[in-house]
Amino acid sequence: MTTVQTTVPPPPAAVRPKVVARAGLYGVLAVNVAVVTVFFVQAGFASNALIVIGRLLGLYGALLMAFQLLLVARLPWLDRRIGMDRLTSWHRWVGFGLLWTLLGHAVFITFGYADSSGLGPVSQLVDLAETVEGVLRAVVALVLILVIGGVSARYARRRLAYETWHFIHLYTYLAVVLAFTHQVAVGTTFTASSLATAYWYGVWGVALGAVALGRLVLPLWRNMRHQLRVSAVVPESDNVVSIYMTGRDLDRLPARAGQFFLWRFLTKDRWWQANPFSLSAAPDGRTLRLTAKTAGDGTAGLRHLKVGTRVFAEGPYGAFTAMHRTRPESVLIAGGVGVTPIRALLEEVQGHAVVIYRVSTDRDAVLYDELRELAQAKGAELHLVSGPVTPDKLAAHELVRLVPDIGDRDVFLCGPPPMMNAVLGSLRELNVPKQQIHFERFSLAG
Description:
Blueprint (H helix, E strand, L loop, with lengths): L15 H28 L5 H23 L4 H7 L1 H34 L3 H11 L3 H18 L1 H4 L4 H8 L1 H16 L7 H33 L2 E9 L2 E7 L13 E6 L9 E4 L8 E7 L17 E7 L12 E6 L3 H10 L4 E7 L8 H11 L2 E6 L9 H7 L7 E5 L2 H13 L7 E3 L7
Parallel strand pairs: 7-8, 7-10, 8-9, 10-11
Antiparallel strand pairs: 1-2, 2-5, 3-4, 3-6
């Protein structure tokens, strides 16, 4: 039997969703920086240059803080186009910019007033905190941001449990409230005119509203609507398990192959743990399935979940979907348990596909039988690549051997970080255009 493969063109302007979203975020920030600067100039300058610089840094810091909230709000429109991992990366870098901006604000303001009063910098800061409304709240907010910045540094982050880091990170919201009330109390720029005041409240209303919508309202509403429960727990190997879930109106859940959820299984010992797992099968409107490696304290209990367990799922999240394909044909590269979103994507992608599955040994190839059957049904090529890490079996020359026209295909990549980094290096060596390479790393913020 000969399989006839039809060429399916990519959707029109396939690169646009990501580009438009990214340009939109940059544009929103740039416009607001310009507006803040105009309001600052209209409000007039202080006689002391240090105070002028300090106030301007404070305004830019407040704007960055509002922008931070937008980045971590998990708004579906942004997340589907940019991806939580990239939004989290931007959140990290904006966070360090915010830290230095607010630190500069405190230093310039303190030294500026100290220059006018003749007090030392420490005495001047204490005097401002004791005599000027809102300054003490600003000092507390700055201390909180310094602590959060410290635990978010890579060295500290690697040594903290996610739950501990997340709990400390929640103090960001307290810092936001304190900083906002400080601005209301002493910020002359946004009280100089009714237009400036309306703008200031509008910016913070949008930022806080986005967080409330994305982090609270949408998850609660979706879980009340869909009522997810575990329907089956199926071991795939000694340390991998698949969990099937059913619920109400799942055909209305806006999930796509390649996306993930933050899953909470509402048992006595797990309800407080949220783990990011990709869907390992394309949503069919009736069931959802995740497949996870049960290694470590956070996931070992998954194989013991009971049928009927209630599930609280936040999502769907991620831009690792066919929405961003730019070419009619594709390559799907999976490593280890990273096969889960790849297996789901294979169901959804159109056009000819080549699947490369990298594992240490053949027995580590979970879901391989499903992949083989699915590849046969879709006329896709499937390559199981097994063996030790060296020599590199996904080096540039090996990829070209398996997929001679890889430069003319979209490449979807998911696997352990070292494997992904190695493959990304191979793709750069082969000059595969960046817009044709799609990958996502699980990294959570806030």
